[in-house]
Amino acid sequence: MAETKHRVGILGGTFDPIHIGHLMLAEAVRDEYELETVLFIPAAQPPHKLGRKISPAEDRYLMTVLATCSNPSFEVSDIEMRREGPSYSIDTVRALMRTSGGDTEFFFIAGTDIVREIHTWERIEELLEICPFIAASRPGCRPDVEKTRALLGDLGVRQIHLLNTPELEISSTDIRERVARGASIRYIVPREVEQYIYKKGLYR
Ligand code: ATP
Ligand code: MG
């Protein structure tokens, strides 16, 4: 009898802070691709964000746990936070594959703002070969994704899937700016995350 593999989505991010856009994205992909689990992976020091001051990994990790703990299909991994140096997605996926013992299929979930630049990523061909990308629209980024797909040739066309989801104009950048100027973030982040931000005095 053919064994059915576990299907797991990977959603990496800075999550500074995690917001409703991330949660809706994860749930939309889980539903559409019949995933058992979506694994949220907060990045340690993202290679492409070296210039900006980001919140301590522990705060970002805890907010991600607070935001996801009521959903039995959502899990959080500290795999990238425990690793020294810059985190490359290919290393993360390889490590997850090793620990899963080969009975799991992985799907890389990302917004189109990320997917449009993956041709610059470390060992991207290798990553695409082992793990399809599910790209969800972020305002204004879709045409660029088509370019990236074309740049990656057959592999790009075969392994980058576009998912139609409602475009939410929500970003962590906007949330940080709102907190800094004292504007409300209610309903843009889960209640627990909002409370954590105020309790820890983040983004002031
Ligand atoms: P920042 O403004 O700090 O870059 P962000 O809101 O883009 O934060 P990230 O942690 O950078 O959040 O994003 C993690 C992943 O979630 C990325 O793949 C990103 O494209 C995706 N994402 C973030 N916000 C949305 C959204 N509103 N709709 C769809 N995807 C999103
Ligand atoms: Mg971003």
**Biggest sheet architecture:** 6 strands, parallel
- Oligomer classification: single chain
Number of domains: 1
Q: Count the strands?
A: 6
CATH topology-level fold name: Rossmann fold
CATH homologous superfamily annotation:
HUPs
Runs in which pLDDT lies below 50 for 5 or more consecutive residues are none
Strand content: 15-25%
Which terms summarize this structure?
single chain; six-stranded parallel beta sheet; binds magnesium ion; alpha/beta; binds adenosine-5'-triphosphate; 204 residues
Provide an overview of this structure.
With 204 residues, this protein is of the alpha/beta class. It has a single domain (6-169), classed as HUPs (Rossmann fold, 3-Layer(aba) Sandwich). The chain has helices at residues 20-32, 57-68, 79-82, 89-100, 112-115, 124-130, 142-151, 153-159, 172-180, 191-200, and strands spanning 6-13, 37-42, 74-76, 104-111, 133-136, 160-163. Strand 1 (6-13), helix 1 (20-32) and strand 2 form a beta-alpha-beta unit. Helix 2 (57-68) runs antiparallel to helix 10 and helix 7 (142-151) crosses helix 8. The protein is globular. The mean pLDDT is 93. Residues 13-16, 21-22, 25, 110-111, 113-114, 136, 138, 168, 170-173 line the site of adenosine-5'-triphosphate (ATP).
